[in-house]
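If you are new to this repository, start here. Below is one unmodified record pulled from the training split, so you can see the exact layout before writing a loader.
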Amino acid sequence: MNSGLPLLHAVTPIDAPDRAGIDAGAAAIARGPEVALHARAPGAPGRILAELADRLRRATEGTGARLFVNDRADVAEIVEADGVHLPATGLPTAMVRTLVGPEVWIGRSVHHPEEAMEAVEEGADYVFLGPIWETASHPGRRALGPDAIARALPARVVAIGGVTPERVSQCLDAGAYGVAAISALWGAKDPGSVVAAMLLLLKSGRQDERDANHRKRRHAGDRNRGIPG
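And here is the target side for that same chain:
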């Protein structure tokens, strides 16, 4: 499993290729290596998706932010993306891996906790699990709720669907590695501030997890040496 996966995934809205302000939004969102910009254009020709990916790539230059391409492994390979995100019914992960190589992150969308570990066992580096809350991007689809995250562990879960800064902590408390958002970022008046708020919570949550793991390892070492806990 590739390490260093970004904590915050900014998935472009469905109308991104024609949306006014997408370049300015991308520049505001691309705030460092903890952020991934996902080029997404469902149903659009590959050329359109590649052009969108190139625009996002320009926004990441000099920032360390990562570029992912959704749905199209061939486009991800052409634009030399850092990651490719597959739909639930997309190409097999092993097939995509042969195309993009071992260093590229591969993720997959899943809509039930049981599917998360199946995706990981098939080679996915992470999963998008959702929708956690109801969202306009998936109208009519029942929200899974934060408890679904815990049921998907130990898969590396990125929670998606109705995620806002106010809900990030609920995702982390349930065991999420990170979060993904569409409207909360691209529809914000000040996307840079929203990203900053989300990253503060995400990085704090990861530090808390590291501290807890360190305490567990230290206590285990003490027990092995016969030192009372």
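Two things worth knowing about this chain: The CA atoms of residues 207 and 213 lie 10 Å apart. The first strand starts at residue 8 and ends at 11.
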